Amino acid sequence: PQDSEKAKTFVHAFLKRSMPKMKDEAIQDMLTRKAVVLEHYHKKQTKQKRKKTKGFTAKQRRELRLFEIEPEQQRYAIFLPLHELWKQYIRDLCHGLKPDAQPHMIQSKLLKADLHGAIVTVTKSKCPSYVGITGIILQEFKHIFKIITKEDKLKVVPKLNNVFSLELDGFISYIYGSKFLLRASERSAKKFKLKGTIDL
């Protein structure tokens, strides 16, 4: 360890090298105060504000007809590959839909699954004209399903007061539309009750 005199000499020589323009008197004055502040200017970084990308409003989407399916595209055969993809997606989601799988576990996963591409049938309805409609779900909105039938007809079926069934690998699931009044994105985060009273 250095003694005090050697330490002072070292500090004096260090300051002289670091600040050659400063006179000896100024350096000595700094040492007598026993505090040395080396000047350092920190550049302030200006934060750039991110511009939020503004999407279309609901009115603009309606005017642009973004969600409308063109008449020439309303053909059942076009969407059969989509149904095959959906079946594979559900099999992966439910780990193969094995015979020993617990039905309530599969049901809970189906309630949160994406239904675009699923073949559904209206089994019960307060409006008799909806009963028996079968087809592939092309679009799901909060209150309706848009379904393309084998007859190449696009049907708009309300969820309210309707019961839908879907079948996959022998497993039949029922969807009570009145309890299903959610967008597809909202359903994935919702907790559904396993038991409850269902009124059409």
Automatic annotation (TrEMBL):
Q: Which SMART domains match?
A: POP4
Protein name (database record): Ribonuclease P protein subunit p29
Q: Which GO terms describe its biological process?
A: rRNA processing; tRNA 5'-leader removal
Partners and quaternary state? Component of nuclear RNase P and RNase MRP ribonucleoproteins. RNase P consists of a catalytic RNA moiety and 10 different protein chains; POP1, POP4, POP5, POP7, RPP14, RPP21, RPP25, RPP30, RPP38 and RPP40. Within the RNase P complex, POP1, POP7 and RPP25 form the 'finger' subcomplex, POP5, RPP14, RPP40 and homodimeric RPP30 form the 'palm' subcomplex, and RPP21, POP4 and RPP38 form the 'wrist' subcomplex. All subunits of the RNase P complex interact with the catalytic RNA. Several subunits of RNase P are also part of the RNase MRP complex.
Task of the protein: Component of ribonuclease P, a ribonucleoprotein complex that generates mature tRNA molecules by cleaving their 5'-ends.
Similarity annotation:
Belongs to the eukaryotic/archaeal RNase P protein component 1 family.
Q: Which domain of life is it from?
A: Eukaryota
Which Gene Ontology CC terms are recorded?
A: nucleolus; ribonuclease MRP complex; ribonuclease P complex
Q: List GO molecular-function terms, semicolon-separated.
A: ribonuclease P RNA binding
Keyword terms of this UniProt record: Nucleus, Phosphoprotein, tRNA processing
